[in-house]
Amino acid sequence: MRRDHTIPRGELHRLVHESIVLQGNPLGDPFVRELFIWTPPGWSAGERLPLLVDLKGYTSSALAHANWQPFSENLPERLDRLVHEGMARVVVAMPDCFTKLFGNQYLNSAGTGRYADYLCDEIVPFVEQRFGCGGKGKRGVFGKSSGGYGAAYHGLTRSDFWDAISIQSGDMGFDALYVPAFFDDLNVQRRYDNSIEKMWKALTAKPKMSFAESVALMDCAQSAFYDPDTTQFMNMRLPLDPYTGEWIAERWDNWMKNDPVVMFDALGENLRKLKLVYMDCGDHDNFRIHFGMRRFAKKLKAAAIPHEYDEFDDDHMDVDYRMDVFLPKLARALSA
């Protein structure tokens, strides 16, 4: 069921890709994965359209953006409408980067696998060759939450590959994001002998988790991306003592090295190479991400790096409607 059946439809292509870089990944996750590609109505490879890559937030995969939505639009339907309303034509890839940790931060990690390489070295070239799109000067990446982190991370570290980024409520400002949550996480972990392994196995076996329990799992999972400990269960270890809550400085330092706000000091100039740096965030984000986004925008402004930052009256949840703002901006920047 679509909101408007009169709008011309693009095509959603369902492909299978066999990865080389994900073979033997630390979590034993699949290296043969599906991905969806949306092409606009009347598309032909001769158009040489820009390519946008969709990075989904934690506990999900970009494949989910093709799911039917009862009260809004899924991504293909939204793209159909936006192009009908005048947005520049693009090709959009929706890759699957889900892991046994229930999500991804889209970087290379000894704890999870080479997902930055997977996107840049495998998925983008695979899509570009198949659909005659993208290429240098015409590549953009967008995402929300963990996907927004991925967009920020790729903009900072792979600006020679990407040409535009859009960050929606992206994980950053790690002290504001994680420090208050860690102590709540330890209270959940306490019920399982202060053991991440026991907590993980017990909670994932439950028919339903509480919000606090799901956040505790998500926060522990982040350690396998930012500070993997390959001697521990699924490479996870929080940067504080599970009983006393005392900080382990060297482990927390490893987390902070992956905070885009901190990374900016060494890598921020790379963002100047991009055609567009767009950011937005709800002004009362549930995870306090608006504080990190403000800091990142402040550093961009101080460095006189062109960017757009927009705060809106909302929280972290159900903000896909903001795609109506940033997708046309990305498409226009990459079509110029």
TrEMBL record:
SUPFAM superfamilies: alpha/beta-Hydrolases. InterPro entries: AB_hydrolase_fold (IPR029058), Esterase-like (IPR000801), Mycobacterial_A85_antigen (IPR050583). Gene3D superfamilies: alpha/beta hydrolase. It comes from the Bacteria. It holds the Pfam family Esterase. PANTHER family: ENTEROCHELIN ESTERASE-RELATED. This is Enterochelin esterase. It comes from Candidatus Viadribacter manganicus.
